[in-house]
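WARN retry 2 of 3 for item q-0093 after timeout on previous attempt; input resubmitted unchanged.
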Amino acid sequence: MLNVLRLRVPRSSSSRLNPTVGVSAVIAVCVLLASTLSAQLPPLSPAHLNPAIEKLASGKPIYGVLTQDISRENARALGRRDTDFVFIDMEHSPFNMDGISSFVAAMNDKAYTVKKGAQPRSALFVRMPPYASENAAWVVKQALDIGVMGFVFNTVETKEAAENAVKSMRYPPWKAFPNTQKGPVGIRGWSPGGAVWAWGIDTEEYRRRADLWPLNPDGDLMAIMIIETPLGIKNVDAIAQVPGVTVLSAAAGGDLSSSYGVPGNAPEIEVARQAILQACLKHNVACWITPTGKADQDRRLKEGWKLLRTPDGLPLP
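OK item q-0093 returned
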C-alpha cells in the first residue's frame, strides 16, 4: 500500500502572492505517485496479445491479407492461415456489424488457443465507410467492442482528424495505469463485454491492454491512418507526430492516384509514397504499403516499410 504523502506549502507572503508554488508542488507529487504506481504494475504475460504488435515491437515486418468476404467459412480459413493480420475492408462492401461479430467469433481457433493461450494467430483490423473527417466515433466504438485489434481510418488529411481518430479508440485515462494519462484524452465508452469475450481475458486485463501502441507500451490496439490525398501528403509530417498514431498507410494507391488525377505509376504518386515513408521514419511510426510483386516487396522492405499487404497474407516468394 502506498503511504499517503502530505503536502505542506509554507504560509509565507511570497507563497500567497505566487499561487503557482502550490500548483507546481501538487504536480510534482502527482508525477511521483504516477511513477510509483507504474513501477508497481506487474508485467503483462505475454507482453502483447496482438501478434502484429509483438512483431513490430521487435523490429520485424509483418504481412497481412485483405478480405471483403466475412462469411463464417472464410473466417475459419483465414483463422488458420499463418499471416500476421487480416484486414476486413468494409468501406467498399456492405456495412454489416453482425457479420463482423460472427467473423470475429469464427476466427477464434480453439486448437490454436490450446497451444498459444489467448494470443490469436492473426490480428484483425477493420475499415468502415466513414471518412476520418466525419469523426464517426460510433463506428470505431462498435468495432472495438466486437473485439477487433486495429481500426483503419480512411482519407486522413489533417492533424486534427488524426487526433480525433486516436481519441475515438482510447478510453478516458485510468488512474492506476499511468500510460493511459499521456496523449490525446480518450472518449470511448465503457462496455467491453464483447471484446473481453473475443480476447479471452478478464475485464481488468482488457482495460490495461485496450490502448494504443506504441504510445502506451502495454497497448494492444492499432490506429492506422490512410494518407491518400494531396492535402494528406501536405500534412503527413504533422499527422505522424500525433501521439497514438500506430501506422501510416499508402494503401494500394488507388485513391491516392485518383486524388491526384493521374495513373498509379505516375512519378508524383511515388513522390507521395516516399513522403509518407519519410514521415514514418522520422517519427518512429510503422508504414504500410501494398507491393506490386516480389521485386517491389524487397525494395519496400529495404526502404523501411513495415506492414505489407499481399494476396495471401504471406511474403511473396
